Automatic annotation (TrEMBL):
Pfam families: DUF302. Residues 39-96 form the DUF302 domain. It comes from Marinithermofilum abyssi. InterPro entries: DUF302, TT1751-like_sf, UCP021774. Gene3D superfamilies: TT1751-like domain. This is DUF302 domain-containing protein.
């Protein structure tokens, strides 16, 4: 498994706001928020689906990871997505699991850090839903 996704009755905007607050409570800041349909429309491409990507980071964790393995930075910052599924109309919140990503480095020393980040991010998502 490479991801963790939950379903919520909230709108995409409500879920994004709840997620931003929950992440802040866990010392993760939102570095960047990308509204994919809006960005695509700037290029003349229409996407008939709400889809927001948040890039989030805990600076202390980022320093720890990068101090150990600079190539682990290829997976930073963490991405969390919020989207309305076209088939069901339900809002989903999900992330790529840090353990899956950092395992690709082959650096076993990153595993405990990835597990801690993953548990925290999952808690934040569960609280936001």
């Amino acid at each position: 498994m490479f991801e963790h996704t939950v379903e919520t009755d909230k709108s995409v905007d409500e879920a994004v706001r709840a997620l931003e607050q929950s992440l802040a409570n866990h010392k993760f800041g939102v570095l960047w928020k990308l509204d994919i349909p809006t960005k695509l429309m700037e290029k003349g491409i229409q996407l008939d689906q709400e889809y927001v990507v948040l890039e989030v980071c805990n600076p202390d964790v980022a320093k720890k990871v990068l101090s150990r393995n600079q190539k682990a930075g290829y997976f930073l910052p963490c991405k969390v997505v919020v989207y309305k599924e076209k088939e069901t109309g339900k809002t989903h919140i999900g992330l790529t699991l840090p353990t899956a990503l950092l395992a690709l480095t082959g650096d076993e020393g990153l595993k405990p850090v990835a597990e801690d980040v993953e548990a925290t991010m999952i808690r934040a998502i569960e609280e936001a839903k």
